[in-house]
């Protein structure tokens, strides 16, 4: 069973223990990238609970919701079923409208994955973003993962990318916000990666510009990366870009 690990009275770096499940794995018996992201974000939720408020309470009592703006996920080694992992998360020094959070997954002493993310806090009633200073409770910041995770994503223009398919947003994609949950995107991108069962996805950079609501159909565009892997862009029926991504892969 998952179990929390934190010192009473502290809300800095937070750790939560999981045992990976067989149903989280792919055709190569490796835990899928979307599930790795789900472990991380489930841990961040428990961090908030330990700090005094769950995501449901944040939404229902204060009318606020965290929206993911950008995340870089790096997977250094594969995870397999029935392995015990400790997932760490911490808030990084944040300012303005950007809430920064880091993640690390440990298998024993081995670091198997890390991520750096940027979030926005949305006032659901006013429809506006709130600054870091208006966060309703305090979490002490820890060091960032550094500049290596902070580079901007630069995709080729849309006319230099190939439309490779469409993707409808269905029931199994959505969460309480009514749009595709961000943890589902790595699996979706793997669905559109050639020869994916012969590859391992080692890095995702995801930048979210607009929501993908239930029932919408997204056009999927792809272009090769100069050093291997692919760039992706999703575009809605109005021609607006919803998500931009970079995916690195290696042969299994």
Summarize the helices and strands and which ones pair or pack:
Elements: E1 3-5, E2 14-19, H1 33-51, H2 55-62, E3 64-75, E4 84-91, E5 99-107, E6 110-123, E7 128-130, E8 162-168, H3 185-191, E9 199-208, E10 217-224, E11 230-235, E12 241-251
Antiparallel strand pairs: 1-2, 2-4, 3-6, 3-9, 4-5, 5-6, 6-7, 8-10, 9-12, 10-11, 11-12
Number of strands: 12
Low-pLDDT parts are 1-11
The H/E string reads EEHHEEEEEEHEEEE
Helix content: 10-25%
Number of discrete helical segments:
3
Strand content: 35-45%
Approximate shape: globular
How would you characterize the largest beta sheet?
Answer: 12 strands, antiparallel
Q: What average pLDDT do the residues reach?
A: 89
Rg to the nearest angstrom?
18 Å
Secondary-structure class: mainly beta
The termini sit apart by: 30 Å
């Amino acid at each position: 069973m998952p179990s929390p690990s934190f010192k009473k009275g502290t809300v800095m770096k937070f750790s939560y223990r999981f045992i990976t499940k067989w149903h989280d794995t792919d055709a190569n018996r490796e835990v899928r990238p979307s599930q790795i992201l789900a472990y991380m974000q489930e841990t961040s939720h428990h961090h908030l609970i330990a700090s005094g408020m769950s995501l449901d309470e944040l939404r229902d009592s204060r009318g606020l919701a965290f929206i993911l703006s950008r995340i870089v996920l790096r997977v250094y080694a594969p995870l397999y079923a029935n392995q015990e992992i400790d997932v760490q998360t911490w808030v990084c020094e944040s300012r303005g409208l950007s809430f920064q959070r880091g993640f690390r997954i440990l298998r024993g002493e081995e670091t198997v994955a890390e991520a750096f993310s940027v979030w926005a806090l949305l006032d659901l009633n006013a429809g506006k973003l709130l600054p870091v200073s208006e966060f309703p409770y305090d979490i002490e910041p820890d060091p960032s993962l550094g500049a290596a995770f902070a580079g901007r994503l630069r995709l080729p223009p849309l006319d230099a990318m190939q439309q490779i398919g469409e993707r409808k947003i269905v029931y199994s994609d959505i969460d309480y916000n009514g749009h595709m949950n961000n943890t589902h995107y790595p699996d979706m991108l793997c669905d559109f990666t050639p020869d994916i069962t012969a590859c391992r996805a080692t890095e995702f950079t995801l930048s979210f510009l607009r929501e993908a609501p239930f029932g919408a159909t997204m056009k999927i565009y792809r272009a090769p990366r100069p050093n291997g892997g692919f760039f992706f862009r999703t575009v809605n029926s109005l021609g607006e870009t919803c998500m931009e991504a970079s995916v690195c892969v290696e042969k299994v």
